[in-house]
Amino acid sequence: MAFQSPVTSPFDCLLIDLDDTLYPGNTGIGPALRRNIDEFLVARFGLAADKAAALRADLFRSHGSTLAGLIALGHDVHPDEYHSYVHGRLPYDVIAADPQLAAALQSMPQRKILFTNSDRAHMRRSLERLGLDEALFDGVVCFETMNPNLFGEDAKDDDDVDRPAVVLKPSVHAFATALRVAGTNPRRTLFLDDNERNIAAGKALGLRTALVGKRARSKEADYALETIGGLRRAIPEIWGGAADGELQLDHNVEKNKSMRAELDAVIQPTSIQA
């Protein structure tokens, strides 16, 4: 039986991004992360600083992340090695505790799933700085959740065996994993993220979408809010309140149908209990 919200709300579940969503995008974590990636490429591959920065930008555009691009190109980089370098040296002290956010999360009657491309260690350190207990969430979907085959006995070192591709938002497989954990109908699931590509993918798969960190909605976003602190005002429907206006209709019906069909191909209907 599908999970149903105990309040009069269109949402049974919230999929919530972490970085630049649960904490503000102006903390300095993003620029520090990019510097760390550049330094990793310099140290690991002997690149000049400008070449490292250019490669990072190119791999992000083409593969969604530097790590995904390196693995796709055949480089023997273990995710733990990469994450310990680029996340392990971040200035986490710039993330401030947010008691009001903790209270807001506790007051939400829906299932709440943390849905991040980051690794588990980074997720836990970020939540700790925010003053959020992981137990506030009903489930976590992070790098390790989406990429189990990159770890342990499933990680193949044999040169004759291709390593599995890295799965990250905005791929259909990433959303399929999140929806399996959520166990809810995509059309009654609200997805909050700061990245417009991720928001577009979520919308095309039938999720309701909220773009965080922006004043104006992108065309695929049903809602926009400058900070997570404005959530109750921007989306009162979470708590059963009335919306200020009508939600947008899907803008590209054929594209949305195609992506939903792709989602159906990788996730069993019973797994989301729709």
Automatic annotation (TrEMBL):
Coiled coil: none annotated. InterPro entries: HAD-like_sf, HAD-SF_hydro_IA, HAD_sf, Pyr-5-nucltdase. It comes from the Eukaryota. One of its GO terms (molecular function) is 5'-nucleotidase activity. One of its GO terms (cellular component) is nucleus. Pfam families: Hydrolase. This is Uncharacterized protein. The gene is LOC123447322.
